[in-house]
Structures are given as C-alpha cells and as structure tokens.
Amino acid sequence: MSSKKWFHVFISLLLMCFVIIASIVIFIDPFFHYHKPQSELFYTLDNERSMNYGILEHFDYDSIITGSSMTENFQTSQADKLFDADFVKVSFQGCTYKEVNDNLKVAFASKHSIKNVIRCLDMDRFFDSKDDMYDEGEYPEYLYNNNPFDDVKYLFNRDVIYTRCAKILSDYFSGHDGGHTSFDDYAYWMDEVTYGKDKIMKDHSLFTAPSEVKSCELSLEEKACISENISQNVTEIASEQPDTNFYIFITPYSDVWWGEKYQDGLLDKQLSAEKLIIEQLLQYDNIYVFSWNSDFKLTTNLDNYADKCHYTDTISKMIIADMSNMKHRITNDNLDDYIKNERNYYSNFDYNELF
Description:
By secondary structure, this protein is α/β, with parallel strands linked by helices. It is built from 13 helices and eight strands. Helices cover 45% and strands 9% of the residues.
C-alpha cells in the first residue's frame, strides 16, 4: 500500500475514532448538554456550574430551589411535600444575583410550567453591580451558549471522557441501577463540616466599637446600583412570569457577621440597603419575601452555624417549612417594625458575649 493510501487510511481511522468518542459523549451526556439522563444509566450530580444549566433545560420539574451555597442543604423532598410540587435544586456556590437570574431564564425558556421558585438573596451581595458574575475559577461557557463549534471542549474533554463517561459505563456493566444522585444529596455538605461556637470563634478577635460610623443614608450611586441589580436580576423575571410564585428570603447570617458590620461602622448602611431591596420586591404580587434576621435566638446561637454565614441543615429545613406556612414573611405592613427591631438589636448587642 502506497504512503498516500496509508495516509488516507490513517486519517479515516482517526476521524472514525473522533466520531465514536463524540457519539459516546453525546449519548451518555454526563452534563445533560443535549438531553435528559438516559434512564438505564446512573449519573452522579456533583458539578453545579457544569450540570445546572442542563438540569434546568432537560429535567422534568415544575418548581426550583436556587441561589448560593445557602440553599445547598435544602431538601427537595421536603419542599415537594410542603408545596405539593416537583422541585429540582440548582445551587451555585459563590454566585451573584445575575448568575441565578441567567439560569432562571434558561428554565423559563425551556417551556417548563414553573409553579414555584425558592431563592435566597445573600446579604453580602447587596452592593454588587447588576452585571457582576462569579469569578472564582474557569467558567464552562461552552455549556451555556448556542455555539456548536465550541462543543469540542465538551465532546473531547479528558475529564468528561475518561472519568465521567467511563465511570457511568462501568457502573452500567456492573449492574448499577439507572438514575441520578437525589436532589436532597446534590451539593449537600453538612456531613463534611463541623459547626458551633468553638469552631467559629476560635481565631476571632474581640469585637470593638466602630471608630467611625458610616451614614445610614445611601448615596444616589448606591441606590441606583442596588435598584438596578434587583430590577434586572430579581424582579424583572417575576414581572414576566406572573403565574409563578417567587419565595425570596434574606439569608440569615449569624451575629458574628452582624458584629463585624457593626464594628466596621457599616451596620446602618446595610440595614438601609436591606429596606430598599425589600421595598422593591414588595411591589410584585407574586413575590413573597421572608427573613429570620429578627429571630435573634437563631442568629445568636452559633450552634446553628458552620461559620459566620452558613447555617446548618436544621435551619435549612426550618426555612422551607416557614415559607410554606408564610411564617417570617415581610410585608408592607410590618417592614418598618422589622427594620427597627433589627437596628435596635444589632446596634446594642454586646457581641463579645458570643465568646
């Protein structure tokens, strides 16, 4: 055989290998880029930013739990029962409001009939700009766009082929039942951490009075930034989807977090931002706002926390249950009292009692 024929044979075999590999990845599709899971295969859910887009686009559901790591320990099985719904959980650790909103747009564009969205608003994101995005690592843009040419980053991805597809096929030939990690277990981290006062306060210095108290008045620039962020990334989609109920809760951080805001002289400004945001949310009939920041027994008890912000799964279950019963709901009638109670408590609490 001539060298020219050998070359053609080699190229043909190489192309055939590429086609076979791509076909295997497309058929298994571990990140659900093209379709829902194959019923006979088992999929491990363990990569939020690579999997959540496909979950929202292809899975069967009518309700969504989403937000930051503050929602990772939520149990969809509990929410299913209390809301009489079929939830998926798509959390994004370290996310911004825009990232959550962009993924909610995917869910609604996929023609799902969505009854409920449960979503957190992290308090340390109140002053983000409307277009801030996650910036703590490489983002799998090729899974989020409609450009077929950059799918090569997925179809010929070493991890996808040698780790995920190989594992799924190995499980199948070993007789593993089909399915996927439950949404109760997806992103659940409580078994991996310790929590409580001894851990949280171990290396924390004593709290001091603020050397300078910042004005509680928000500047025009701050007001505009906050309003634009909430409008673009929270309320706009609620306005576009009037038949969907949006259960939005302010993340209940511990008194350690509040003590640091007080110490830095930022407490009043933080509360002013919170009030502005809630007022904006309450303009929409299908948005229900909740907060446990005035449940001081909760925020003071550090046994409820793994660090100054992240609460235990017990609190996660309480949040779901309370929202289903409309407990701790903030309305136009009680908003002023709620903010007043927060200001009185967090301005006067002796944070060194936490030690």
